[in-house]
Write a structure and sequence with these properties.
Blueprint (H helix, E strand, L loop, with lengths): L9 H19 L1 H25 L11 H11 L8 E7 L8 H7 L1 H7 L4 E6 H4 L11 E8 L4 H25 L4 E5 L1 H35 L2 H26 L7 H28 L5 H28 L7 H23 L1 H8 L12 H20 L1 H16 L20 H12 L8 E7 L11 H13 L3 E5 L10 H7 L3 H7 L1 H7 L6 E8 L5 H11 L8 E7 H35 L3 H26 L19 H32 L2 H29 L6 H33 L14
Antiparallel strand pairs: 1-3, 1-4, 2-3, 5-7, 5-8, 6-7
Length: 763
């Protein structure tokens, strides 16, 4: 019942006539179309050049989170000059801070930075005589630089200006003391540096990938002309997508991570689509005029390209659930490059193919016609061997997949240390210096806003016993190195002294303006308690401490809101987990529907999802083995393993892999269905489909592996992980999945592959 071959693909039966009309219309107006593309390419290049200046260099608050609420409170209701700040670290090996030569430069730092618009206040050891600002050997000191800015974007724009002011002093210091450093660090600075290095990674990755990609295309096509079209289309698509991203950046905040993903996917997807079209055109040009061959090619490949592009776009849409501007930017960039690549391929490539005609195989001496036929025969024989032993093939392929997935059980998610930052990064150097002088976790303060809810001022005499007890409990808590608050102005401050000090709060705060600025809201209703975790406490421990503190209040008359860096990471983890679950439901659900409707099948989409999940799981396992367990880590330029995998990586790998794998799924199944609709023999159709597309898919996958793999040698570990993870996923998808698992499964499923379906359409 219902085990008949399908009448045809739903998307082909409805889109092929449209594709034919579009193709004939393009050729009839080829001069106008080419002229419009010329103008579009120029405008796209102009926007692409301007894009870096329009992108956001850093990370923004998580909407609706506790950390954002505290950040807004400190900005709007407190007058602290250090609500947003950076840390300037001076290191003079072998020379103490009081050395006359060092002192002359040291004393210029506050003045140089304090005169910069956007800097509110600069405080160092000489101002506070605070041991936390000076290393025990007196060779490393730091300044806290308060920024007079109201949002993350303005803060990021200020960082290069601060560094520019420090440059002359840094040069003088280096001449006076060899090996000395004067660097700017802090969370905002670190995020700025990550994006800057990531943008450079995109440029270097593209330069590395292009020559290797050209070589693969030349080997695949044996023709310079056929090689040139996919390369040109990929570069044009990338430039246009970056230009459109510049337009989008005028209306929404986009991260510089967008450049990485557009560059990665522009080369991969752009070449993929045009590779398919060039390959089919070479089949058609032998017995058709050039224009007719171009129309036939568009008719046969256009629907598959459209469905493939739709699948990739939907998969990337899963990233839109993330609250992070970086992941949303990856979604925007990925969608733009996929749409642009599909449009360029479907409208410009047919015109180029028609213009080339038989010259697509130029120069002829490079075209091994018999060689191409032998490759097709080899793929046919390989598939026959798989179909003859489906159970053995499934067992072998699944065993390899299981071995690659196994390390996934040890995956630890989070940001365990700063080792994933490049050693040459200035903010990383500053963090290392802070670790050496003691207050490593000065960059991880936990900020607790305590607000009175009974309508009285926070420092009202009736509140003081509860607030003092609360402060003492915080100081005594494990993992806390220091507590800065109105209750802990000095160590051992007892309740009688606190009662005396704040007997008249307004008079006291007038005498101690720095206390009002740092710890008391402008309306007097809220106080800030800032906790510095101990040196030994890891980020994970600081996050746990932040979660615990959110459950403790001074009493019924107060409400407590916890923010700061550890809480930001808590909010990040929580939101990323929710985003991943939503992305999983969206991508899997839409994949089921789209493939089910396109192929009029129940088993085809289920098979695709299971096999894609295996490839994604194996990619995760390889990332854990390399980055956490250190296997082969030196091969990609890292010295030591990381403590954890950032939570952004799994969702990025999942969404992009699922989207890209649909390219191969649609291309291959379209050819299998085409053969099956002709003769109704399931096994023969699988063999013919793989024979026709095996070389094409292998070439396309090799290009993707090369493009993504080049990013495994990026400077920033996150970019390394994305590049390596995608390269592994694509490699496994094009080998174990397409060559072994899929044909073996389709052989075992037989006609049930196409259930439910109608009668075949004989051609």
């Amino acid at each position: 019942m219902g085990r008949e071959p399908p009448e045809g693909l739903m998307f082909e039966s409805s889109l092929q006539p449209l594709a034919e009309r579009v193709g004939r219309g393009l050729l009839a107006r080829r001069k106008w179309v080419l002229g419009l593309w010329f103008v579009a390419i120029l405008l796209g290049a102009l926007g692409a050049v301007r894009l870096p200046g329009a992108l956001f260099q850093g990370s923004m608050a998580i909407p609706g989170s506790d950390s954002e609420a505290v950040e807004n409170l400190l900005r709007d209701r407190f007058a602290s000059p250090y609500a947003r700040h950076g840390l300037v670290v001076m290191h003079t090996p072998g020379r103490e801070i009081d050395d006359p030569v060092i002192r002359a430069i040291r004393d210029e730092v506050p003045a140089a930075l304090g005169a910069l618009p956007g800097v509110w206040r600069v405080t160092g050891w000489q101002d506070r005589n605070d041991a936390r600002f000076l290393s025990p050997d007196r060779q490393t000191s730091l300044w806290m630089v308060g920024f007079r800015v109201t949002d993350s974007k303005a803060e990021q724009q200020l960082i290069p200006k601060v560094r520019e002011r420090l440059k002359p002093l840094s040069r003088r210091l280096a001449r006076a003391v060899p090996g000395s450093r004067l660097v700017l660090t802090g969370r905002a600075t670190m995020l700025h540096d990550i994006d800057h290095h990531s943008a450079r990674d995109a440029e270097v990755g593209e330069i590395r990938a292009l020559p290797l990609t050209a070589l693969i295309l030349l080997l695949a096509f044996g023709s310079i002309a056929a090689t040139g079209i996919p390369l040109a289309i990929a570069l044009v698509g990338t430039s246009l997508a970056l230009g459109l991203a510049w337009v989008a950046a005028q209306f929404m905040t986009l991260s510089s991570m967008l450049q990485n993903i557009v560059t990665m996917m522009g080369l991969a997807v752009g070449i993929d689509y045009s590779l398919l079209m060039v390959s089919r055109f070479r089949e058609a040009i032998g017995n058709r005029p050039a224009d007719e061959a171009a129309v036939w090619t568009l008719t046969r490949t256009g629907p598959a390209i459209l469905v493939s592009a739709l699948a990739v776009i939907v998969a990337l849409g899963g990233l839109w659930f993330s609250p992070m501007v970086e992941l949303r930017s990856i979604a925007v960039g990925g969608m733009l490059i996929v749409v642009v690549s599909a449009v360029v391929t479907l409208t410009l490539v047919p015109l180029l193919l028609a213009a080339l005609g038989n010259r697509i195989d130029w120069p002829r001496r490079l075209v091994p016609a018999e060689g191409r036929a032998s490759v097709r025969r080899a793929w046919f024989r390989l598939t026959e061997a798989v179909l003859a032993r489906p159970w053995r093939t499934l067992a072998l392929a699944l065993a390899v997949m299981a071995a690659l997935i196994w390390p996934l059980s040890a995956m630890k998610l989070g940001f365990g240390s700063t080792r994933w930052l490049p050693e040459a990064m200035e903010s990383r150097q500053g963090i290392d210096l802070l670790e050496g002088m003691g207050p490593r976790n000065a960059m991880l303060p936990i900020q607790i806003v305590v607000e009175a809810t009974d309508g009285k001022p926070a420092l009202w005499v009736g509140h003081l016993p509860a607030l003092h007890a609360y402060a003492r409990a915080l100081v005594a808590r494990g993992g806390v190195a220091d507590v800065l608050s109105p209750m802990t102005l000095r160590k051992g401050l007892g309740l009688p002294e606190v009662m005396l000090l704040y007997r008249n709060p307004e008079r006291t705060l007038a005498r101690l303006p720095e206390v009002r600025e740092a710890f008391v809201s402008k309306d007097g209703r809220a106080l800030l308690f800032q906790l510095i975790p101990t040196q030994a406490l890891s980020l994970e421990g600081a996050q746990a401490l932040s979660r615990d503190l959110a459950r403790v209040t001074p009493g019924a008359s107060f409400r407590v809101l916890v923010g700061g860096e550890p809480q930001y990471y808590n909010d990040f983890d929580s939101n990323m987990s929710i985003a991943f679950r939503k992305a999983l439901v969206l991508v899997l659900g839409v994949t089921l529907v789209v493939l089910g409707l396109a192929f009029r099948s129940v088993l085809v989409p289920i098979k695709a999802i299971v096999m894609n999940l295996l490839a994604v799981g194996a990619a995760y396992g390889v990332l854990v083995a390399v980055f956490q367990q250190g296997i082969g880590l030196g091969l990609i330029g890292m010295n030591e393993p990381l403590q954890a995998i950032p939570r952004t990586i799994p969702i990025i790998i999942f969404c992009i892999t699922f989207g890209l794998s649909m390219d191969y799924e649609v291309f291959l199944l379209s050819r299998i269905r085409e053969s099956f609709a002709t003769h109704g023999d399931n096994g023969l159709a699988v063999a013919e489909g793989l024979a026709a597309t095996g070389g094409l898919i292998t070439s396309a996958a090799a290009i993707m592996v090369v493009v993504f793999g080049c990013f495994a040698w990026a400077e920033v570990a996150i970019v390394k992980m994305i590049g390596l993870g995608l390269a592994v996923a694509v490699l496994l998808d094009a080998t174990l999945v397409r060559v072994l698992l899929m044909p073996a499964f389709m052989r075992l499923a037989g006609r049930w592959n196409w259930w439910p379906g109608g009668r075949p359409v004989l051609r």
